[in-house]
TrEMBL record:
It comes from the Bacteria. This is ABC transporter ATP-binding protein. SUPFAM superfamilies: P-loop containing nucleoside triphosphate hydrolases. It comes from Reinekea thalattae. Keywords: ATP-binding, Nucleotide-binding, Transport. One of its GO terms (cellular component) is plasma membrane. The keyword Ion transport does not apply. GO terms for molecular function: ATP binding; ATP hydrolysis activity. Coiled coil: none annotated. Residues 5-253 form the ABC transporter domain.
Amino acid sequence: MSSMIEVKSVGKSFGQLAVINDCSFSIEKGSITGMIGPNGAGKSTIFNIIAGTLPLDSGNIILDGEDVTNLSADRLFSKGLLRTFQIAHEFSHMTALENLMMVPPKQVGENLFSTWFQPSKVAKQEARNKRKALEVIDYIGLSHVKNELAGNLSGGQKKLLELGRTMMTDAKVVLLDEVAAGVNRTLLKGLTDNILRMNRDFGVTFLVIEHDMDMIAKLCDPVIVMAQGSVMVEGKIEDIQNNPRVIEAYFGSSDIA
Ligand SMILES: Nc1ncnc2c1ncn2[C@@H]1O[C@H](COP(=O)(O)OP(=O)(O)OP(=O)(O)O)[C@@H](O)[C@H]1O
């Protein structure tokens, strides 16, 4: 297997505080890689660096063989990398379906010139877009609420919609930031199943930060454990659960397990 993302000797400080220290790891193409670690380990910081929302101080980020160090989130999006947030970012005054239709970049209809001079091209793109949005909403199991205002959906449905939005773009790699937070068990299963299906059906690579260990265990192989700004260990969840160094990092003592 080859790497989708390579993090190479990355360093990042906030003032005097070194938060990421010579951090290196690689995310294999087609994997669902989990990232765990105690509070303050630097998970969100490295995530933000990969996602292009935080500049790094040193090191490199390679995406599918290309050096993308310090590229903006928009540029990364156009290269097939996107992230979902802890809080789903739906447009609450639009329907669930319209939220999906909003996503694809470079829509012809957004350009005033095109709307006036290429109306048939615009109409064709909109029709294609709607078809795809209908397919996606069916795939994620939200067809029954497609005409609901997104603001009226439950927290879990909003997270599913957010995942659906990543499917509108033919993403190569999706960064998932604590998607389980605040989602009820039934919808969490829907979310987990959809991530597994997207991975299996379309080969999407995922990097998942998650505090919900059940979700990590169901989804992720391998799992990277961060501690003090770099990778402490990486491996299968079963091995990590029993690793005394990991237990110590979480609980302060390996006797507690
Ligand atoms: N913008 C910032 N300015 C100053 N310090 C920051 C900033 N962002 C994060 N930090 C600090 O960097 C360290 C790592 O934070 P980070 O959020 O990356 O950890 P984390 O592993 O994601 O933790 P958690 O699981 O609690 O979300 C923490 O000590 C945090 O206080």
